[in-house]
Every structure is written in C-alpha cells, then in structure tokens.
Specification:
121 residues
C-alpha cells in the first residue's frame, strides 16, 4: 500500500490550482462542488484503509509494522474538534474568501475607471 506524504489539504489545494491553469476567469470560491468532490475522495480513501485494517485484524492480510506506524501518525495528527468548531472555522474561511473576491472586484473596477479617465484626458 502506498501512503501519500502530502496532507489531504495540500492535495485539495493542488487540484484546485491545477484546475485554474489556463483559466482566465476569477475562481468561484462559493462553489461547493470542490468541497463535495474532496470529501468524496477522502471518504473513498478512508474506506480503502478501513478495509485493509479489517483484513489485517481478521488475519486475511499480513500486518505491516511501518504501515501501522504511518496510520497511527495520521490518526494522531487529526485534531479533536467538535462540529460547531469546524463549522465556525469553515464559515470564517468562507468569509475571508468572499472578502478577497470582493476586493478583487473593487480593484478591477478601479482599474477600469482609471483607464476611462485616462482616455478622456
């Protein structure tokens, strides 16, 4: 079994920015498709790992000490957060992204106004 050295967050970010290559439009941070896709992929990966662990526990597959250590590190690295905390973090992050999107819009409008003024002068 192969265990990725990148965190899931890194993988999600990488996929998001790879999707932006060649795309000249401003990314839509409100799109929930990215979150849904990422969660679906993560759930699929967790199901694969759980299936392997069940096979090892039942004796159907040989145990691998190194893989066991890596899985334990992954489990221990997961923060113990309740649902409200996660919701607050996501909402805060979304508000930050919306603010950036709004500031980008304002900057574009300012540049357009400046260009029009320069044409008049």
């Amino acid at each position: 079994a192969v265990v990725s050295t990148q965190s899931t967050g890194d993988q999600v970010s990488l996929k998001f920015f790879q999707g932006l290559r060649g795309n000249k439009k401003t990314p839509n941070f409100n799109d929930q498709e990215q979150i849904i896709t990422s969660c679906s992929e993560m759930i699929a990966q967790i199901n694969i790992v759980m299936g392997h662990v069940k096979k090892v526990l039942s004796g159907e597959a040989p145990s691998d000490k190194e893989l066991g250590r890596q899985l334990m590190e992954v489990v221990q690295s997961i923060p113990n957060l309740d649902g409200d905390t996660i919701t607050n973090m996501l909402n805060s992050h979304m508000q930050d992204l919306l603010a950036v999107e709004y500031l980008t819009y304002l900057t574009r409008q300012q540049l357009a106004i400046s260009a029009r003024i320069n044409q008049i002068l």
